[in-house]
Design brief:
Layout: H1 23-37, E1 44-48, H2 55-69, E2 72-78, H3 85-101, H4 108-124, H5 147-164, E3 168-174, H6 181-196, E4 201-207, H7 211-218, H8 222-225, E5 226-227, H9 236-249, E6 253-254, H10 256-266, H11 270-283, E7 288-289, H12 291-314, H13 319-329, E8 336-337, H14 338-344, H15 349-361, E9 365-366, E10 372-375, H16 380-390
Parallel strand pairs: 1-4, 1-5, 2-3, 3-4, 6-7
Antiparallel strand pairs: 8-10, 9-10
Bound molecules: adenosine-5'-triphosphate and magnesium ion.
Length: about 400
């Protein structure tokens, strides 16, 4: 069928044609924003889940909700491996302060925000080009050179500037598992302080399932500061709705058997659902899509996923890491203990624990429970078994 009218959206952060199964999370985010707007304290939200479950999609959804509500200054960041949190934050805060400055009645509070930002850049030695703030220094605010103190000072000063304009700050941070420990520490401390003095800052973050453990390690009170909704795979009904609703709106339909097979193949993981539906649509000769159409498309879809989605991640591994990941694939369940992996590698737990750490740092593994490890990429085990069978 016509590729141009294909409603499905395999991608990274691409809004799905039907955002199903996420009503609770949208409700929680809405509550957080509305309570913050009402000047009440609220628990911020850290969305966690495997690769491709829809975390970025949800952050963008929250962004749009916030735009509709008005009176919200949005600061949206995606943490990157080769940049510090401060380097990413500073230009966004500057933009926010300039925007606040354009509102009528902006004055001292915005100026204080700009001065604090200037101090922060100097104190922490933030590597940002082309930013010069030509104001006299504001002594004692964000100028200690200590990230914890200065981030807190800076954010609270910018929040005060927003408050002076009857606005709140909404921080949307993606890929938070990449934040360094001291950065996470400083951010949690800032949110803790903000909650105590009811400063108008709300945070919705997203990251891999390592995030709750990392925040808990950074600050033990983090579990009371944040809600950690688990963004998981969709159940059978949700997965079917995710496909059949957009198809029907576009004048096509999938039979029950077709939908059941797609669910079994994808296990309800959103990225795979979009990929399967997109490709089946393109290869199907007619708008009533049947099991035959699904089965005909299957080899190409799987080969496509193997050579792109899975392969890109596999190719980032060192030879030792590959051996480790293959050994994990031989465990009976989705979760493995380090000793099971060591046994498969004919080694012992202590000699392979460094490889495990590297893989966690690369975002390939996480620990769902003490002593257990799991892939962060859904269906990676099945991919590795296919690779093993081929060689
Ligand atoms: N609730 C949903 N229903 C249907 N499809 C969805 C849903 N959420 C996300 N998707 C689709 O899943 C894909 C992945 O979404 P997204 O990029 O937001 O995942 P992610 O969790 O941020 O992944 P990563 O961890 O790799 O960044 C997109 O193609 C998106 O359209
Ligand atoms: Mg994402």
């Amino acid at each position: 069928m016509d590729e141009i009218t294909n409603p499905f959206t395999p991608g990274a952060g691409s809004p799905p044609p039907a955002l199903v199964g996420r009503d609770n999370i949208i409700y929680e985010a809405n509550t957080l924003i509305d309570r913050t707007l009402a000047g009440r304290s609220a628990q911020s939200i850290l969305l966690t889940g495997l690769r491709g479950v829809g975390k970025t999609v949800l952050l963008n959804k929250v962004r749009h909700m916030a735009i509709d509500k008005q009176h919200i200054s949005i600061i949206q960041l995606e943490i990157e491996e080769n940049k510090t949190f401060a380097e990413l934050l500073v230009p966004e805060l500057l933009k926010t302060l300039y925007e606040l400055n354009m509102l009528t009645g902006a004055g001292v509070a915005v100026k204080r925000g700009l001065m604090a930002l200037r101090n922060f850049i100097k104190g922490i030695k933030v590597n940002v080009a082309n930013i010069s703030i030509d104001l006299a220094p504001l002594q004692g605010v964000a100028d200690s050179g200590d990230l914890n103190r200065d981030l807190c000072d800076l954010m609270l000063t910018v929040a005060a500037a927003a408050k002076a304009q009857q606005r709140i700050l909404l921080l949307l941070i993606d890929e938070m598992q990449l934040m360094a420990k001291d950065e996470l520490n400083a951010l949690i401390l800032t949110m803790h302080k903000a909650q105590q003095i009811i400063a108008p800052i709300a945070l919705v973050g997203a990251g891999l399932p390592t995030l709750p453990m990392n925040t808990g390690k950074a600050k033990s009170y983090a579990e009371r500061l944040f809600l950690y909704p688990d963004i998981g795979k969709l159940n059978m009904q949700e997965a079917q709705d995710a496909i059949s609703e957009p198809a029907e709106r576009a004048g096509a339909s999938f039979t029950k058997e077709a939908l059941e097979t797609i669910f079994n193949e994808t296990q309800g993981y959103p990225y795979f659902l979009q990929t399967w539906a997109y490709n089946i649509w393109n290869t199907s000769p007619h708008p009533k899509i049947t099991l035959d159409d699904v089965m005909r498309a299957k080899p190409r879809i799987q080969a496509g996923l193997d050579s792109s989605f899975f392969r890109v991640r596999y190719d980032r591994l060192t030879p030792r890491e590959k051996i480790f990941m293959h050994a994990m694939a031989l465990c009976d369940s989705q979760e493995c203990t380090l000793s099971e992996v060591a046994k498969q590698m004919q080694s012992n737990s202590s000699s392979i624990s460094r490889i495990r750490e590297q893989l966690v740092r690369k975002g390939m593994l996480f620990s769902p429970r003490h002593g257990c490890i799991r892939y962060t990429v859904p269906l990676f085990k099945e991919f590795l078994l296919r690779v093993q069978n081929r060689s």
